[in-house]
Amino acid sequence: MQITPVLDCSEAFYKECCLENLNDRSSDNQILHILSRQAHLKDSLFGTSHCYDSETSENHSSSEESVSAPMPSFRGIDLTQDFDPEVVWNMLSLNERREFIRHANSGAISAYIEIWSPWWIDSTCITDTDQSLPQAKSLETLMPSGKRPNSSVALNICETVMIYAFICRYFNGDHFDLVNEAADALIKLSTCLSRSDQPVSTQPQSASSVGLFGFPRTDNCGISQIISGLHFRLMINNFKPTPSLIVLLLADLYKISSSLDKIRKAVDDSFKIILKGFPKQKTRGLLLASRKLEFWRACCSQSSLTWLDDQLYSLRPAIAIEMRLRDCDLSHLDSELDDSILKTAS
Fold this sequence. Notes:
The protein is an all-alpha fold. The protein has helices spanning 4-23, 26-39, 54-59, 65-68, 85-91, 94-106, 139-142, 152-170, 179-189, 191-194, 223-236, 243-256, 260-277, 284-299, 305-345. The chain is globular.
């Protein structure tokens, strides 16, 4: 039997802890530490090696000399600008083509590609808007009754932002150049976008259906549930949901959610990916996904900033706590692996 005073006391305790966490600036410092650490990992989160630190380069200079320096066969060819792949391919000799294929198959070619720097790491205020997108509708237009969106909408926005961050990193910033693949990944990895339910839910919630901080008790409730669902979908779609990747995406979500402008840009970019990735397909699933993103854009519009700010104020402590717990587990795992390696060596 549930005792109401006990439940109220427990919820008040956790809410107080989260509010204290929100005022603790160490969360921001830890985010910067995680992002900096992940940027210098030897092993890429996506199964390839994008960069090497100085110590690693020194230790492997003899065995990986051909990878540490630019391949002579590709000097003089600018692969950073728009170019015709066939023209570049025809410029290569047979041996150079074989060398390219060998590097591509081994993953070593990623060492020659500059790592993309996420735009949300920069603290600069985002003022420009994408003129190619239709103007976001106001929340009053979509919900003329004046009711506020269900609190689960904020969780769905957070899930979409995390997947958007993953797609940006996975395609190394070329998600709009590879927009078909990016749109396909966005739909497949998102629990809320791939569902066939309607995007708006404003039905009143019973007391038994309301969980911590007013979040509805559903399968998609809470940051940890979002992470579990994303981990599963990454796995079944042949991505590699490593612990370090999950921590990095949580850090990305925390960083993006620190600014309403950044949240708006991430949702706008996700909407743009869907529009450009499926320009002619009008299936029911895609139409629903577009409607949901259109509704979330309205939730991020200027007229809805108060509602969104209130939601993020409650969610950011939960994001920070989840990130800290998983980062702590990852640190313990690294320590155990180091101890195991030392014992094996001795």
